[in-house]
Amino acid sequence: MSNKSAIGVFDSGIGGLTVTKEIMNQLPKEQIIYFGDTARLPYGSKSKATITMYSRQIIRFLLTKDVKAIVIACNTASAHALETVRKEIEIPIIGVINPGAKVAAETTRNGNIGVIATEGTIRSGIYNEFLGEIRPDLRVFGKACPLFVPLVEEGWIDDPITKEVVSRYIQELLYKDIDTLILGCTHYPLLRKVIREVVGDGIELVNPAYETARTLKHVLEEQKLLSEETTTPEHTFFVSDGAEKFRNFANTILPCEIIETKDVNIKTFE
Amino acid sequence: MSNKSAIGVFDSGIGGLTVTKEIMNQLPKEQIIYFGDTARLPYGSKSKATITMYSRQIIRFLLTKDVKAIVIACNTASAHALETVRKEIEIPIIGVINPGAKVAAETTRNGNIGVIATEGTIRSGIYNEFLGEIRPDLRVFGKACPLFVPLVEEGWIDDPITKEVVSRYIQELLYKDIDTLILGCTHYPLLRKVIREVVGDGIELVNPAYETARTLKHVLEEQKLLSEETTTPEHTFFVSDGAEKFRNFANTILPCEIIETKDVNIKTFE
């Protein structure tokens, strides 16, 4: 393992690609090895023990690829597994929740923060917990938006139906006088434009994908692990099911074209 | 196993409850043991191999309850696994696809049949295959409607947003001059009212849940397995995750109240 090694990124499926995109933008010299656990998604409704077991298997798989750092590009796995698995490996490992929470706490002026996320993330209370640790005086209002992920996966990104759905979900947060809104699911940055139209200019949108890539850059700098390659890195994408479908979707999101995705039997990485 | 044994019904989650409801209506003396694989839903996006493995585990679980027949109340599992698992067990096993396809083929006058279902079911081409076997002259037009399930699960059943989504999905089938529309996902009968508003009165809606219960009745009669109990049967509901959430939803659908649902570790039924 050296600064020439790749960065491992994983998610329950395709959501983590928004984080990958930010890493590619902010750290264009870094090679990425992505794992999407498409056979076992969604993680949102599963228990802490299950998610921790899944995360361990994926980390073991990524370590066979000699990665120098790992990004858990999934809110549920960050919430349930990060603390445990961090103690078990030697390389830096970063989740998506802390970076977003930190920036939201710095950004808010009136102390009212909204969080939109999947039902699992909202129910876990993880953003309330993290934000409370940073600034106990904050008021945090969560709202589960279970239709956002299927709308994104349907490709109805800039669409009147999506705008109506966004409007209905976000209305109750607007009544709470929030001035900062965390996009607490890795799919949601893809709805950023429509969300902006609904909330207007007075509310800061926090994109944890962007903040996570910034944190990663900072960590790699600190540990002198930044790549110094001058050739364009070749990224690799692995999934546990449906490699082709994954590739098609990924090619609509990422700034580079994915030529191939590979299937992995992740359960064998016990 | 005797005619006093229960009927096993399974689905990836709650969708199969529409089939269960029809069985309760048409076969009120039969006891039902339901399994909803809520920990591993949705099935729609998973591969044939994965769905077959899941179905095998669930069938093994249901057989421990001494069931006399099994209904795969899930289109994806019916499409991917029925043919394989039918050869592996001794009791009757029925899927939801054949009964609906049969009635649709009998119903159509102009030979143009529309099928709405999840992406997995449409991609499998299973309705085209079954309909083609019954009547090779039919023209079958499939349309995946991935937003319908989350809309139902959000409870937005009779809702302007849902009507707009239905309208957008179904428009291209209307252009094909269909006169019969199969509701090819077990959640969809819950959207029947809105679908009817969009398609008007000129199109027959086929509800495979209803037809499956009819087929089950017929099979039990033939094999002399009909229950002759005179007391009201006590149904049992098992899920692989989130028993309480399941129970709440089930109680909005079923004609009887579910008092208790139980969690099962389905992966141990290898």
TrEMBL record, chains A, B:
PROSITE patterns: ASP_GLU_RACEMASE_1, ASP_GLU_RACEMASE_2
Name by which UniProt lists this protein: Glutamate racemase
Gene3D superfamilies, A to Z: 3.40.50.1860
InterPro entries: Asp/Glu/hydantoin_racemase, Asp/Glu_race, Asp/Glu_racemase_AS_1, Asp/Glu_racemase_AS_2, Glu_race
Organism (species): Lachnoclostridium phytofermentans (strain ATCC 700394 / DSM 18823 / ISDg)
Biological role: Provides the (R)-glutamate required for cell wall biosynthesis.
EC number per UniProt: 5.1.1.3
Binding site for substrate: D11, S12, Y43, G44, N75, T76, T186, H187
